[in-house]
Specification:
Strand order of the largest sheet: 2-1-3-4-9-5-6-7-8
Shape: elongated
Number of helices: 5
Helix content: 10-25%
Strand content: 25-35%
Number of strands: 9
Distance between the termini: 43 Å
Radius of gyration: 21 Å
């Protein structure tokens, strides 16, 4: 019968999670999770057992190696989920996560580190598979590296998703569509540009 360390290691790999992702979700160090997987563990508190079971999407009894009824071979457990706000029209001058900007809350696999979601409009990011109507998940942060796909505010009301480049006093917002020219801001114009997050995932519904 499996014990906690073997269940943790097996389920982490099945879900495609890293040690760091488990550690961040559990609010412990990566080294601690590594010790758990190596079997260097005496006993977890009940609240931690429940939390780890939710992350791994297994019953607490299964995580602890207690007797449980196995799922049929053709049943794959869903990953643990969390809810993030889906942002609609940005209200002038308000923080992006202000209540009046939130349309609804949508489900997202818990291992994806995102704070909110946006609905993509237009064809500017089609070369990387993002199309109109797709949901893009955003990790809230004010800086990104050059070339990363970012959610960017232009002025107070326009939110756009583009590859972000900042060199000297020039900011470029570059589409993933050769038919759309980059938007270039120079000098004082760059003051109206504000990064509000890094795009980390998206979902696309096949019709």
């Amino acid at each position: 019968m499996e014990n906690l360390s073997t269940v943790l290691k097996r389920r982490r790999k099945e879900l495609g999670l890293t040690l760091l992702q488990i550690a961040e979700a559990m609010e412990v160090s990566e080294a601690t999770v590594q010790r758990w997987e190596s079997g260097n563990i005496k006993m977890l508190r009940h609240d931690r057992i429940s939390r780890l079971a939710r992350i791994l999407n297994v019953p607490p009894a299964s995580l602890m190696g207690w007797e449980t009824k196995a799922l049929p071979d053709n049943i794959v457990p869903l990953p643990s989920m969390k809810k993030v706000p889906l942002i609609g029209q940005i209200a002038c001058g308000t923080p992006i996560l202000a209540e009046q900007n939130v349309e609804e809350y949508i489900d997202l696999p818990a291992h994806i580190r995102a704070d909110y979601a946006l609905t993509c409009k237009g064809e500017s990011m089609v070369n990387i598979g993002i199309q109109t109507g797709d949901i893009v998940y955003i990790r809230q942060q004010e800086e990104v590296e050059n070339g990363q796909v970012a959610a960017v505010m232009v002025g107070d009301e326009e939110a756009t998703l583009k590859r972000f480049y900042h060199t000297g006093n020039v900011v470029q917002l570059v589409a993933e569509n050769s038919a759309i020219a980059p938007r270039v801001f120079i000098g004082e114009e760059t003051a109206q540009i504000r990064v509000v997050g890094l795009a980390v995932a998206y979902t696309h519904i096949i019709e």
